[in-house]
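Escalation from tier 1.

The customer reports that the assembly of two entities below gives different structure tokens on two consecutive runs. Tier 1 could not reproduce it. I'm attaching the input and our single run for tier 2 to review.
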Amino acid sequence: KLKVLSRNSQDYVRECGQVQKVQHNPDPKLHPFERAREYTRALNATKLDKVFAKPFIGALSGHIDSIWKLANVPTRLSTLISGSCDGELRVWDIPQRRVTWKAQAHRGFVRGVVVERSGKNVITCGDDQTIKVWSLDQSTIMEDDDEQDESKENVKPLHEFLGKAGFLDIDCQWDSDLLVTSGMQVDLWDMNRSEPLHSFSWGADTINTVKFNRVETNVLSSTASDRNIVLYDIRSKTPIRKLVMKMCTNSLCWNPMEAFNFTIACEDCNLYTFDMRKLQQAMNVHKDHVRAAMSVDYSPTGREFVSGSYDQTVRIFRVSEGHSREVYHTKRMQRVFCVKFSADSKFVFSGSDDTNVRVWKSQSSARLGTLLPRQKQQLRYRKQLKKKYVHMPEIRRIERHRHVPKSIYKATELRHIMSSAAERKESRRRKHSKPGSRKFKV
Amino acid sequence: MSSRDSIGMNNLSDSGNDSGVEDGPSPVNLQADIQKIAKKSRHRSERPSVRLAATGSTGVDLGALAVLRKELPNVDGFVEAAPRSKPEQKRIARKRGYEEISEDVNKWQGIVHQQRNARQLSFPLDKNSISIIKQDNKFQPLMKTELEKEMYELLSGAEMIKPKEESAEDKAVREAMTLEEVLERNKESWRLRTLRNKLGKKAHIRNKTKSKKFHRILKKDRLRKEASNLEQLGKTEPGRALDKLQKLDEIRIEERMTLKHKKSKWAANLQLRAKTDKTALAALQENSRLHEEMVNKLKKTKEEEEAEDDSEEDDSDTDDSDEHDPEADTQNSTPAPGVQDKSYKKMKTFWGEYNRQKEEEMKDQLEEIRRQRKQPKKGQDEQTIEEANKMIKDKLKQSTKSNKGKKKTTCSNNPDVNDNVKINEYEFTFSSMDKPDNPMNESAVRLRTLDDMENFKPDKVAPVAASKTLKQVANNKKKSLPEVDASKIRVLETKVLESSVVKDFFNNDSDSDEAENDDPNADLFDEDDLALDEFNKAREAAEDAAQPKDVCHALPGWGSWTGPDIKMSAKIIERFTDKAPKKAPSKFSDKKNVIYNEEADLHQNIRNRMVSELPFPFLQVSDWEASIRGPIGRTFVPELVHRKLIEPALVTEIGAVIKPMDQTQLLKDNRAKQAVKDNKKTKNQKKEEMEKSGEKPVRPGNQLIEFGSSKKRKFSRKSVN
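Tier 1 run:
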């Protein structure tokens, strides 16, 4: 009989799982290549990030016309509401990727959709001069298309207000039940009254969008087709300040974490971030779109925002940076009219001309679902490594690389040529004129 | 009056218009304003004439009046507030409103600043709620006067101050253990459990050990302990000690009766084998012989003892022997004579009688005890207990001196003593084997690698090796005198990036460099040009070697005759030669004191992976280097440090709705305000420093200049984002 030393590997495994105990010695003398190894790890992490970058989660199809407005519910994450150009309103269950209920809300466009702060009612406005209040939880359950069409007729609004002219946008105050609509003028509504409480007007042009400040809730702002952005104070019942841009502003969004900052999506392809207190110049100009920026929405963290453009792309910008950190596009996605960040900042929704609502991840390579602690730690480590070595040319190159459709690529190139030519011209003019006579453009 | 109006209005309208962006002149408003102004001016032009006419009739000096009117606006307090036009009023209201809001919004500045500069942000933001703490009624104010008492009673009677009532829940909370207590208790119980397990395991291992020596030592230990215990007991409570003794005796007797001591496993086995194996039989016989011998010896010693007892009582050296401890006897006593005396036989019979009687008595006693009690436990302890019993007996005898036939003073016959003797012997022999002075192998050579270890020979190596190494060092020193290989000299220009590490490195070495400059090497170079010539030659050779060579593919005998004296024609050679492309001169070709070895320089691939410019947020190379110097992986740093280092800048929970910031966040603003102040201070300091150093501070607002202006953006095909 032979007697041998034998060890059961199970004795050296942690109780909680199949994790082998490994001894480490952090003495730097034992790790002469630590920097080289970490660099390689960072490189691999960057590459892995690219490998796992699959931001597109799915498309919610069903509308039969372009989607004009999206809204999410302040109390729920799984519900999304979309209004289309043919006046149809759909409430989506996002995890199931199906319609909860739908209704023919308006004749003509559904111009504005917003959910009341309690999360119970949806308020829509449209070209047909009406504001309608819908209960978010309708009892109708959709089975197949035929029933849907029938049920579409069954869904009725709770209330209906008639205005004097068509409405172009609607927004709800975050901490009370006040509503604000835009169109001919900016109207302030109480939910319980059929007439507006107050009307603001400054100038005669059409007011396209209106938005409440989400932190300093008495301040609101509107953008008009005469290139103006106007700030209002609902306590003093006056418009307080006007800002004239070179081109028309399509959308505006207040930063939910910084009370005085807002970002606008402009017709000149750029987005501008402004400080309410210093309107003489923009805090930041975010350039990357090659056609008009149609819509902008802030992440609830207030650190970044998403923008949709006529150039068929969705881009995510950091507030402090001039260029986008991410660009999303698909072959079938047409001009993007509306974008929305989810309330947990993990997802981005886009509604476009091709009648689809698309769901994207806000971090393209983020993992869905719960993570084990070890996985979490690993991801954190990778992220930190990337951050540490981000300036290394190779890593930078890989990290920055994005594929865009040829048309956008060419357009970017063209814009670059044009802008550099203008710069060159300006610099030459300055060179050949009396010093100090040509002022720098601000 | 009217002119006053107009002047006032003009001033205001100016102030309203000077901020051009603010009140963007909407065409409608502008038109209305213009019309109104026009109307007013018309009024103005009409009315004074009428008035003038009137005054003229009364005969007042009109010229003086006109002067007065001109001066009037300058007199304070005299001007009445004029009613303003509507757009003007609106404009003023707007301006005021904007200023107020801007001021109001400033309250968020602190928290925004804090968030922007936070090391880590976590969302959703935690709610700050205000709660009112009720006052407990335990506080009794010191009441000096009657009035105070009355007032207090009145107040407490009116129940203005309500005592804080303890609800059942509160009580439960108060009585329940705190988390710390629970943790403490759990910890304690865990500790006890582990201790028990540990001891149990230890005991188990000890019991399983097969080493006889170990068990013997263990037993000895135990017996000694028991003996000492009993001794102490004898001193303090002799009655109990006797009881215990008796009990031990009983156990011994019982064991004797079972005859277990006579049965040896070895003997039994041997007996079995003895049927076939003769050697076994022999061994058995030998054993019995030995046994007999031993017994005899024993008896003999006993006789002697008795004799000694009779004759002399002061002989303390001879040990008190025991019938049951033959080993000790054999070790102590001198070899026994084989002869047996008659007196011994007598003694034997006597003792036999005596023992038998005693045994019988004991048996009787045992019977009685058995009747009274249950049978005591039998086990492996019995034997040892018996031995302990024996020793204890000895001790007791010693201490009480009640035994008449024994010596007064005897050394306890501990096996320890013998062991000591043995050990001493061993020690002696050991020490005699070794060198007396050197218990360890010492050497002057330090073993660093495995090879050293293999080569190392322990005895007499050290001094020799030491001398050898010394010699070697000396030789090396001789060898390392100037011997310059010019081809190995490579001088490179130090480049732009001023690394702090490198700087330090060179700084440290600078002293030694200077020292070297003083040594004969320099003289060698200075004195003769030979070295310089050599260097130049080497340099040229290196340059030639670096140039690519022409390759001639012409073979003799092809197309022409060949042989020992025949040379190939230049034409053919030229025709079949591949000319190497001229290489561009290297960057050091113009420097005559440099031999540039291109292959030894950093490869272009490595250069491609290095940063060519100082990255954006960093102001100094040292900062940038510091940022990538330290490792962060758990392989290289301790786990906790690693976790600290990889903390994410932004923490969000999956599935948690993040609400916009609300007013409650302002409650914890104090720290934020402080942060802003600090930041302003540091900014100002920085500005001052910058101004001192003559640099232009960069305004944060200047980011906008990049819009449509001179800031260039690199455009590459691959990165469009």
